[in-house]
Amino acid sequence: MSEGLKKVYQVCEEIGRGRFGTVFRCFSPESGDFYAGKSIDKRLLADSVDQECVQKESKIMQLVSGNPNVVQIIDVYEDETYLDIVMELCDSSDLYDRVTKRTFSDVEAAAIMLPLMEAIAHCHRRGVAHRDIKPDNILFDGRNRLKLADFGSAEFFHDGRSMRGIVGTPYYVAPEVLSGRDYNEKVDIWSAGVIMYIMLSGIPPFHGETAAEIFEAVLRGNLRFPTRIFYSVSPVAKDLLRKMLSKDVSKRFSAEQVLGHPWIRREEKLDQ
Ligand SMILES: Nc1ncnc2c1ncn2[C@@H]1O[C@H](COP(=O)(O)OP(=O)(O)OP(=O)(O)O)[C@@H](O)[C@H]1O
């Protein structure tokens, strides 16, 4: 870790490891609070592509910080050797842990989808597509507030300019990404739709035994709601799922349209 960070924070135990960095719990004697410090050893980055990648992650995090449902960046320290990013600490169980334990009722799923879509809409307004929306990247802070994390695959899009390149995670990746076509920020809506489907049913909408089989199922994009699993899911939830998991990108809802859908709005009122 950089000397700059160590002057301000006490570095505690390791809490996770990613492709490029190690995350530690850090304590600030000044504020009396704990944070998450992600430390990237720049000597271990293989090439200029990886170097650009970590710089971009830090830049994008700073750009989208400021929304209560996006992990806040607190400080960035950089010296010859390390790039350190101090973030708010999100140490409650992540959405991956939660969805693998049980299915969610309509009300419970909407209580997750509303802040998740607020976070995605905020990123899209800032011209950022996350490109790796999945339960493992949806964290919760000590007060159980949802925080969208891991901008390591995120990309800027501007003025309708599209993006290229295969990024994402098999169950959650949008068909237009897999087909190698240009795509836009609506890839995030597809992935959020997959999460909503899994929360309500306990199974992914497009599945297979291997990554190749999952990709084939995603490319077919044949959305089904098996009655034995979906009998208790409301028609309005299924309507929103169809609009988020539309293979036709021009018909797929934007983040703002999802936020205006009656399923999200109705549950918001119920929740209050
Ligand atoms: N703000 C945070 N608060 C608490 N834990 C965090 C925080 N950010 C990351 N983590 C933990 O640290 C781990 C590593 O995070 P990191 O972003 O480096 O990699 P990653 O999410 O596995 O993705 P990538 O493959 O892009 O590196 C995560 O899996 C998560 O458990």
Any overview of this molecule?
The protein is an alpha+beta fold and 272 residues long. The protein has two domains: 3-88, 2-Layer Sandwich (Phosphorylase Kinase, domain 1); 95-265, Transferase(Phosphotransferase) domain 1 (Transferase(Phosphotransferase), domain 1), CATH 1.10.510.10. The chain is built from eleven helices and nine strands. It has a five-stranded antiparallel β-sheet. It has a two-stranded antiparallel ribbon with strand order 6-9. It has a two-stranded antiparallel sheet with strand order 7-8. The mean pLDDT is 92. It binds adenosine-5'-triphosphate. Residues 15-21, 23, 36, 38, 71, 87, 89-91, 139, 149-150, 152 line the site of adenosine-5'-triphosphate (ATP). Adenosine-5'-triphosphate (ATP) binds at residues 15-21, 23, 36, 38, 71, 87, 89-91, 139, 149-150, 152. It comes from Protea cynaroides. This is Protein kinase domain-containing protein. One of its GO terms (molecular function) is protein serine/threonine kinase activity.
Give the topology.
Blueprint: H1 3-8, E1 10-17, E2 21-28, E3 33-41, H2 48-64, E4 73-78, E5 82-88, H3 95-101, H4 106-125, E6 128-129, E7 138-140, E8 146-148, E9 155-156, H5 175-178, H6 187-201, H7 211-220, H8 227-230, H9 235-244, H10 255-260, H11 262-271
Bound molecules: adenosine-5'-triphosphate.
